[in-house]
Amino acid sequence: MKKLTLLAALFMLFQMAFAGGLLTNTNQSAQFIRMMSRNASLDIDAVYFNPAGLTSMEDGWHFAIHNQSIYQTKTVDSKFPFLNDGKYEGIVEAPLFPTAFAVYKKDKWAFSLGFGPNGGGGSADFDRGLPSFEIPISKVVPALAGLTQINPEYNVTGYDADLYFSGSSIFWGIQLGATYKVSDAFSVYGGVRYMPAKNTYVGTISNIQLEVNGQMQGAQDWMNSTAGVLYGQSAYYSGLAQDASDAADFAREAATVMDGVINQGGGTFTLEQLVGAGFITAADKAQAEYGLQLVGYEQSAIDVMDINTMKVVYTAAGDEFEAGAAAATSGSILLAGTATGLEDNASELGDREVDTEQTGAGFTPIIGFNISPNEDWNIGIKYEHKTTLTLTNSTRVDDLGLFPDGAEAGSDVPGFLSAGVGYKGLDWLEAQLSYNMYFNKGVDWGGNVRDYSSREIDKNGYGIGLGLQFNLSDNFAFSVGGLYGDQGVADSYQSDFSYSNANFTPGAGIMWKITDALTFDAGVSNTFYIDSEVTFNDPDVGSYNEIFGKSTITFAAGLSYSIF
């Protein structure tokens, strides 16, 4: 049976991102949600999307605060043959996903501050656990099938367990930087993001039960008590083996004595005749008769049996007793081994709990360029370096022994390159085309919990988006957009605990300029993920498939305010 300590390894793979890369949230403003493309932004959210374009803003102070409410459903359909029900659902919620921006612009300089969840930002609850939690438990049933050969009452036909996992992840980003306008057409940006991170994991495996002869019983108690019974039976068979071995020795010794009598010419005599002739004593006669009685002969048959016949009987009896001793010994060993196996595995079926928190921080250097060849067109480019991040455990409960308090683990965030082209050549229409490349191959993603092989990336991830804003008046606009993303993961990356699906996200919303200084943005988006079907190989059952799916809906609103 596979050890249930696998639960701890699962926790370490828990990752969450809502839009963008494997660990990177690019949904950093309400404008993004309503357009899905902002890499050439010249508005306040350019602090994140195109910081080199901030010198295009008017001189003065500019502020914005936004919030998104994000709801995601994660589904896993496992075809593992021993599971009670292979369908699992996890709910991820982030009702508060705040971002904030501030810019001070003066002449050729712009200084900016950004804040938001650059990774994670929500909590996930799996009320039934996941296949990786349940598969090791489900394999207990077929592993115990052989018990019916020992006792038909040990008929284990099913299992049950209470499984639960809850995790939250938040990688905040606090970004500071400066933009300089080199010329009317070109500006540059340099900045850094400080990224404090916190993951919390709470998980339990409890109340594991086995269905034995149609009744549910606590797995650990039943296996331990059954082991006790089998140990007793093993001792009984061991005693039988010793008795049979002693009987075999007696029979062989008797056969040897008979052989001596035969060699002296007494093979055709009965025991009574040998006593009368003085070959043996009455005590020898009684002992020989007793041995024959144990073999199963009546006294009347013994009285007429000659020594030649007795030797044949004792020789055959010795062989039979020896075979019986071997069979009883084998049975004793089998029962003892089964009992030991039950005890060993029972120890793995007790309640388990993990309650730990991981914290750490890293820095992300950021550079950017903005090119405005004319008033109609704008090009924004940004590169974020990989964030080297180490998380330290603060563990309250760790029944699995795999989260030592104070231990460290790496959780680097991949670097990425973004580029965007914006067009404002028409009074009634604005358009943006955006492209992101995520350098996922530059990060060690650890091992896959299913087979402990490396989680691989086939190619670096990317996202491409198009957004259109229709200016219905000077103060009001409606926008639509769409974003397609694929993180380029290989099948070896995927597991029920952390998987990535290619996806398409349409979004729509409004912009309302309440006054010259105050603007309201609102949007909604819905992400449609392409189901990912992956084949796993189990050492006990062979290959089986699992289908991973997701759906995400996001609501966003924000206010921007300027002091000129």
Quick overview of this protein structure:
With 564 residues, this protein is an alpha+beta fold. It has helices spanning 6-12, 30-35, 46-49, 131-138, 140-143, 219-263, 271-277, 282-295, 299-303, 307-346, and strands at 60-78, 87-106, 109-126, 156-183, 186-212, 215-218, 352-371, 377-384, 390-398, 408-410, 416-426, 429-438, 461-471, 476-486, 503-513, 518-529, 532-538, 542-563.
Superfamily (CATH H level) name of the largest domain: Outer membrane protein transport protein (OMPP1/FadL/TodX)
Q: What fraction of residues sit in β-strands?
A: 35-45%
Q: Describe the main β-sheet briefly.
A: 14 strands, antiparallel, barrel
Low-confidence stretches: 1-13
Calculate the terminal CA-CA distance, rounded to whole Å: 70 Å
CATH topology annotation of the largest domain: Porin
Which value, in Å, is the CA radius of gyration? 39 Å
> What is the overall silhouette?
rod-shaped
Class by alpha and beta content: alpha+beta
SSE pattern, N- to C-terminal: HHHEEEHHEEEHHHHHEEEEEEEEEEEE
Q: Report the CATH C-level class of the largest domain.
A: Mainly Beta
The helix tally amounts to 10
Report the count of strand segments: 18
